[in-house]
Design goal:
- 38% of the residues lie in helices and 25% in strands.
- The chain is of the alpha/beta class.
- It has a domain at 25-39 and 82-239: 3-Layer(aba) Sandwich (Rossmann fold).
- A 6-stranded mixed sheet has the order 6-7-8-3-9-10, sandwiched between helices. A 4-stranded antiparallel sheet has the order 2-1-4-5.
- The relative contact order is 0.17.
């Protein structure tokens, strides 16, 4: 589904992402972890076409993301860490606008909006201006817009920031249900409990380098072997020499 091959991103003399290689299979909910400044958001921006790689390749379902940018974007839904909405539009108007970017027919778009309103429990807020929305409701509308065109891959950057417990529960359940139906989700997060709850595969990046890439069960066994909780294990792994992967 998604392949990152020798991916590098330099900003001047600073290497933010250093020859990372990842392969995310269809139907995975991939948790992408790392300390602040590790390269998570830079990686996401390259996958979604917002930053060009210095070198390396990104393939989405066999398509080179940078050789065929328009074709690849029709297969991707992107949920940024800070939702961007047009405050003078209602939620419905924003979704109609977003769906129009993907050339969805009026009937199909209306049906998709109605379906997502129900799944994300947006309710009557859909016809209120987004300037009235809470952080949780803004995030739910942003998520709905990313799923309008039934993308094969959803890329999410810190989906739980500022969410109250009810909104977080709704979003997590929605992601899990979508993965069960075949959608692939690549999710960057600092929320270790969310990773343990819903992810199937986990990658950890530190100083631009991948130091762990395996199933959640493998990370759980490593946690058990070291008599740690996930937070303690994460701190240990990211403080160790990233060139020494013999412990993984």
């Amino acid at each position: 589904m998604l392949i990152l091959k020798d991916l590098v991103k330099n900003f001047g003399s600073f290497t933010a992402v250093n020859k990372i290689n990842l392969e995310i299979r269809s139907g995975e909910l991939y948790g992408f972890l790392g300390p602040n400044g590790a390269g998570k958001t830079t990686t996401i921006k390259m996958i979604t076409g917002l930053l060009s790689p210095t070198s390396g390749k990104i393939f989405l379902d066999g398509i080179d993301v940078w050789q065929k940018p328009v074709e690849s974007k029709f297969k991707i839904g992107y949920i940024p860490d800070q939702p961007f909405l047009y405050d003078k539009l209602t939620g419905r108007e924003f979704l109609l606008f977003s769906g129009g970017l993907y050339n969805l027919s009026s009937i199909h778009l209306k049906n998709r909006i109605d379906e997502l309103i129900e799944l994300l429990r947006i309710g009557s807020w859909i016809d209120k201006r987004t300037e009235e929305y809470s952080q949780g409701m803004r995030q739910r509308i942003t998520i709905a817009s990313a799923f309008l065109h039934d993308p094969e891959l959803i890329v999410v950057d810190e989906p739980m920031i500022g969410l109250d417990p009810q909104s977080a529960f709704i979003v997590k359940k929605f992601f899990v249900d979508k993965v069960k139906n075949g959608t692939t989700i690549f999710m960057s997060t600092h929320s270790l409990n969310v990773v343990e709850e819903i992810c199937t595969q986990v990658g950890i990046i530190n100083k631009g380098t991948i130091i762990f890439d395996d199933k959640l069960e493998t990370l759980s066994r490593l946690k058990h072997d070291r008599n740690n909780n996930l937070e303690e294990l994460f701190i240990q792994l990211t403080n160790e020499d990233e060139t020494d992967t013999s412990h993984i």
